């Protein structure tokens, strides 16, 4: 295992945080145009653009949204980038963010098919819901951040994580199981306004990539 002995924030973690802050400031200035162009819309929506599965993870809805995501990115990003190095860490971050988008769109596809079947039977309510699906943007780094949490758990399963709210301390692997269960149950039974399956997607794709790296014996391989 290769660790870089540094006290400062590693390069990619720092640059991702700065980029998110800059884009958030631009969003406060340009507003609707930024959301229409760079949020993630369902692929058959008139607002969809091919670059959105990448750009959505640098967009945020409000101050607390970006603050919590960047704070979590700082905690886990520093640890992972120091093990993996900048290129490997960046690849993991983008991969899990894209995976989050993929699962989220997959769930939306199932919903759209359901609404379309109801519309064929004459349901006006289903038509309204489908229209809402087409016009609702998804934003946030949460999918990639959940991927970082999963990655940290895989590297340091017995590390202790301390939470402010609720004020508890648990091992990393326990925290991941709890968060995954919460996101799954919230996605199935409610939690409107939050892309719970996108969070799960980040964790699932992170798990896939780490298992792939493990199988090839390159999980701890550091490369500039």
Give the secondary structure arrangement, pairings included.
Layout: H1 11-30, H2 32-38, H3 52-55, H4 63-84, H5 86-120, H6 124-135, H7 142-155, E1 160-162, E2 169-171, H8 172-189, H9 196-215
Antiparallel strand pairs: 1-2
Helix pairs in contact: 1-4, 4-5, 4-7, 5-6, 5-7, 5-9, 7-8, 7-9, 8-9
Description:
The chain has helices at 11-30, 32-38, 52-55, 63-84, 86-120, 124-135, 142-155, 172-189, 196-215, and strands spanning 160-162, 169-171. The longest helix is centred in the middle third of the chain and has 35 residues, at 86-120. A hairpin with a 6-residue loop joins β1 and β2 (169-171). The chain is mainly alpha-helical. It is globular and about 55 Å long. Strands 1-2 form a two-stranded antiparallel sheet. The chain is built from 9 helices and 2 strands; from the N terminus they run αααααααββαα. α5 (86-120) packs across α7.
Kindly list the characteristics that best describe this protein.
single chain; 224 residues; mainly alpha; two-stranded antiparallel sheet; 9 helices; 68% helix; globular
Instruction: Please count the helical segments.
Output: 9
Strand content: under 5%
Strand order of the largest sheet: 1-2
Structural class by sheet pairing and helices: mainly alpha
Approximate helicity band: 55-70%
Measure the end-to-end span.
Answer: 15 Å
Largest sheet, in brief, is:
2 strands, antiparallel
What is the mean pLDDT?
91
What is the approximate shape?
globular
Question: Using only CA atoms, what is the Rg?
Answer: 18 Å
